[in-house]
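Dear colleague,

As promised, here are the two records you asked about, laid out in our usual form so they can be pasted straight into your sheet.

NAME FIELD: protein one
SEQUENCE, THEN STRUCTURE:
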Amino acid sequence: MENKQLIAEDLLKINAVVLRPDDPFTWASGIHSPVYCDNRLIMGFPDIWQHVIRGYLSIINSDYPDIEVVAGTATSGIPHAALIAEALHLPMVYVRSSAKSHGKGKQIEGTIKPGQKTVVIEDLISTGGSVLKAADALKDAGAEILGVAAIFTYQLPQADKNFERAGVKLKTLTDFNTLIHLAVRQGKISNQQLQQLKSWYSHPESEDWRNPVL
C-alpha cells in the first residue's frame, strides 16, 4: 500500500481524523469544519506510531538528506522529533510558540549552531502559521531550514500561499484529499458528503460547502 494511503488508513482507524460533514466542528478561528484531526492519539498505538516515524524517515531520506538537526514544534511535534532524532542519531531541539517569560527566556530548547541544516517536525498543517513562526525562530538562531515535515495537512489554500510566501518546503505523510477518498471506499462517508468535504477545503471560510452544487 502506498505510504499516503497507509497513514490515512491508520488515522481513520484510530479516529485521529474524524469526518462529520452533517454535524461540523467549530475551530478556534470560528470556522465550521466537517473534519477534525487529533494526531496526539497516535502515541497510544505503538504499531501506528511506528508507521508514522517510518513515514517521516522516508520523507527525510528522499527530500531532506542533508539534515543535521531535528526540530520539533512544541508540543505536538516533540515526541515525533525525539524518535526521528534517535533513529538518525542526530541532535534535536524544540521550539515554543513564544519565548519563556521566566528563566533564560528561551524560545528554542537545545543547541543550534550557525548554518546547521534543520528540518522542522510538525504533526498537523492547517494554515501553516505556527510552524512557519517556529521556522522563523530557528532562522533567527542561525539555522538553515531545509523544510517542514508533518503527518497530515488539511490542504487549505491559505497554507499553500503561506509556505510559498515564506519560501519553505512542506512534505506530509498524508493529506485531506487522500483521506476523504479512502473514507468513501471504506463506506465511512457517502458521495454526497465527499462533495461537501471537497467544497469545504476549497473555500473553508464559506458556509456554501454544506450545499455543494453536484
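NAME FIELD: protein two
SEQUENCE, THEN STRUCTURE:
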Amino acid sequence: MDLNTVLDVRDARSRVPWRQGDAWLGGGTYLFSEPQPHLRRLLDLSRMRRLLDLSRMGWEPVRELPDGSLELAATCTIAQLSRFGKTWRAPAAPLVEQCCRAFLASFKIWNMATVGGNLCNALPAGPMISLTAALDGTCLLRAQDGSLRRVKVADLVTGAGRKDLAEGELLRSVTLPARSLASRTAFRQASLYGLGRSGALVIGVLDPVDGSLAVTVSAATVRPFRFWFPLPPDRDTLHDTIDATVGADDWFDDIHGLPAWRRHMALRFAEEIRRELTTRTEPNAGETA
C-alpha cells in the first residue's frame, strides 16, 4: 500500500532529530499493510544493521553471547531466525521454528518481517512476542537522548496494540537468558481455520536446574501472561492461577475467536503442557490444533 502522507524517507544512520510524524521502518510489513495517515517521515533501519550497534560492532541478526545467552537484533528477520533455529543445538531450539511457523505467512513476509517489528506492533497473535516472553526475554531500548533501559518482553506489551515505548524510543535487541535456552519446552497453538491467525498460543518452559515451570499464555489474551511456579503445580492450581490472573477483559475478542473459546483453549493447552513437561517421557515436537 502506498503511504501518500509520507513526504520523506531518511537513512536512520543520519541521526536526524525525531519529530512528530516520524516512524522507524524495519521490515515494513505492518506499515505498508494499511493506511498510516499520521506519518510524515520514515527512518529506515534496513541499511544500518551493521552500523548502529552501541558497541560499533554491527547488528548481527542472532548472536550467541559468552554467558550462553542469545541476543536477537530487532532487525533480525523471521527467515534469518528460522535458519538459525534449524541448526541450533540448545534444548529450547525447537521452539524457534514452532513460533516462526505460527506466522503462517508467505516467504515474502518471512524475508522482510522482523523480530522487533513483531514485538513493537504488540498484536496479541504476534508469535515473536510469544517466543521471547516465554523464554523470559529482556528488551534493550534506546531513547532519543541515547539513554538505555531494559524491560521484560512480558512487560513491554501492555495490551492489544499497546506497548511501553516512549516517543521515538528504539528497540535495539532482545536477550534470551542461557537458563531458559537450556530448558525443556512445550508448544500448543490453536486457530479457527487451517491457515488462520493464532487464537491461542501457550508455551511451557521447564527449568533443568531447579525444576520450576513457566507457562506463557498469548494470542488468546490482549497481552502475554507468563506464570512462573517454583515447583510444577497440580492441575487445579494451574487452572485457578490462570483464571484468577487473567481478567474477563484480558481475553481477546475478534473475528479469529470469541473470549470464551480462547479461554477454554488456553486452559486446555496449559494443562496438556503441564502434563507433558512433568512426565519423564520425551517432549513432543509440538502440536497444532
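A couple of things worth noting about protein two: The two ends are 33 Å apart (CA to CA). The chain has nine helices and 15 strands.

Best,
R.
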